[in-house]
Amino acid sequence: MTGPDTLRHLARLATEAGSPATAREADALAERLAEGRFYVACVGQFKRGKSTLLNALVGESVLPTGVVPITAAVTVVRHGPEVRARVRFEDRDWEECDPRGLATYVSEEHNPGNEKGVTGVEVFVPHPLLGSGMCFVDTPGLGSVSGASTAATRAFVPHIDAALVVLGADPPITGEEFALIREVAQQLDELVFVFNKADRTSDRERAEAMRFTERVLSEQLRRPIGRIFEVSALERLQGGPPHDWEALSVRLASLAQRSGADLVRAAELRGIEAILTRLQHELLLQDEALVRPVEESRTRLDGLRRLVAEADASLGELGHRLTAVQERLSSTFIDERQEFFRRALPAAQRALVDSADREHRRGRGLRGYLTERAMEIAREWLARWKEEQEPRAEALYQHAVARFVDLVNEFRATLRSAGLENLPPLAPDTRFRARSGFYFTGMLRIAPESVGSAVLDLVRPPRRRRRLIERDAVLYLERLFEVNTARMTNDFRDRVMESRRLLEGEMRTRLRQIVESAERAAERARELQAAGAEAVQAERERLRRLRAELDQLRLRQEEV
Questions:
Q1: How far, rounded to the nearest angstrom, does the alpha carbon of residue 238 sit from its chain's CA centroid?
Q2: Are 162 and 188 in contact (CB under 8 A)?
Q3: Tens digit of each residue's pLDDT (9 = 90 or more) over 406-423
Q4: Alpha-carbon dihedral of residues 449, 453, 458, 460, nearest 10 degrees?
């Protein structure tokens, strides 16, 4: 059974289980897989020109632009034979709409606070870039006057496969902007950075802002960020200077060709597992509610709401205590780094000197060789240290969140004592959630091979020249150790912080889902019990059949 077939089966089961929202999610994912679609979200601060950039990329002014903030709706731009649009609401399915009137649904002016209940907007455009399955996602901007806008952007993050990050010079990258970029970078390998509105600043101002942005992104993300493309979307629409437009288009086309299939497959596995798990627990809750008196279910539901509220408050209090634990972990990482530095650097320097003694090149040739050799030795030692530290760092993190696990177990025990057992799983995965962002830097700007050194080497006596070259190479190796071990230590520290944040967020989501599932089960049980014992028995038989079908689907997924 293919992924789309499995999802259509899940959609039918969700409908029969009385969970239309889950059914819609399964149908949407099935359609997406059948068409090979993957989502490239355009993210950035309010007024960065995201909508204008997407309009320029697809060659059509289909998205509303201007100074009016976009409301809580996320808009997907996908391929179609002609330009058209549709909108979906909380209380009804997709409806066709005039593409020229999208502002009616997505602007704060015409739909303040999303009072119309718009849950999605799709625009279809016949553009070759979208023909590969790539879909652009226009997200509400950070810094908007509508708090729901930022929330909608963050809520969509788990669904995206790659990101088009739109930055600018006025102002340069902000703290809130970077927080979202870091959140997206934790789950995505594919990030494309764009410096929009290149026509709005002077060359000097733009170059200064670009240097600042590159430095901040490289240092904070600790991963190669690739080229930042300078463009002006507005000028592109008006036929102005191209800037880096052609290079950006090539980069996006390459992304679609090289990674599109892998991104779609990852979305399939992720989505099916989530829907399967949700439905299984939904059916268990419904069956349990059927055998209890209505009044008992109501009492349990009230107790559950109270317990979840208390657990949520406890998570907040625990967060403050975990901050102190994180600080102690940072000190531990620093101590580990210093011990490695003390132990490894002398051995690495001896290896470098031995390499110099065996090498017969002179002058700049020797400098170049020892520069490369220093980087090789540093990489070897750092890779070894990272391999040693990875399990130790994760063990330290798990020890730090032990109280978090205790809290979850206490909550589970409380639920069991209250007779609430068939609930979604709560046991948290305490492994590192955040991926490593470390990458080795050779710091070539301070490498001993330089024009000035080469000139001086020409006038120095051969023996003195060789001693100085070796000394410079040894100092360079020490600097490589110093900077890269610090970067690796910071990477471990940040992974602890980010993993803890993701763990807290996941638990709060699970607590909310527990209450929502229990509420649905209690309401359904009340209706059936009012209809009589035969209705209850028939429903229990139906639920058993649905659960058996879900079990079969899970077995098939495990075999894939």
A1: 34
A2: yes
A3: 766 676 666 666 555 544
A4: -120
